[in-house]
Fold:
Amino acid sequence: GAGVSQSPRYKVAKRGQDVALRCDPISGHVSLFWYQQALGQGPEFLTYFQNEAQLDKSGLPSDRFFAERPEGSVSTLKIQRTQQEDSAVYLCASSEDSRRAFFGQGTRLTVV
Amino acid sequence: DQQVKQNSPSLSVQEGRISILNCDYTNSMFDYFLWYKKYPAEGPTFLISISSIKDKNEDGRFTVFLNKSAKHLSLHIVPSQPGDSAVYFCAASAQGAQKLVFGQGTRLTINP
Structure:
């Protein structure tokens, strides 16, 4: 596709529910990133993949957060037992050279 | 520990004048800097970048200046246009580290 595509655009989850957020990166981009953006803040790094290998997951806030990219293309960010503090915009980005990342439109997660 | 700081939450500029957005960083390992622009309900869009081996990079109406000794960079937009109204994020990365570290953003409003 022409850009990074994320789905769903909006997700409302009840506290304790599991959610899965999908990212389709730009075709051919080796690097894929997930970021979390709280209201009024800049994006914060969650995790990084190079092809199917998750090379950095230092930003994942707890073991309830899990990301995968099994075939080196589409990625899924899963949040188990969602809490109110998980409410944020989740941004996916992909990159050819790891230094200039191109972002999707994000998924706004609201936990009620 | 905010490694990248944008100390002005908002900036208002008259159409046709110069907009100057500022960013400070603390990590001396950062060697690549980027500016992103974000409209509401959209993901950040890459605007311009600069490597630490340069002190200036220009692309049309946008110029980024880097002062390594002061650990400061700025984005100049001239002339400012109404479509430039958005939130601007400064971001930085270190050689060997894939993730971007973002500032909190500055909301730029261009007044007609």
Observations:
- The mean pLDDT of chain B is 95.
- The radius of gyration of chain B is 13 Å.
- Chain B is about 0% helix and 55% strand.
- The longest strand of chain B covers residues 30-38.
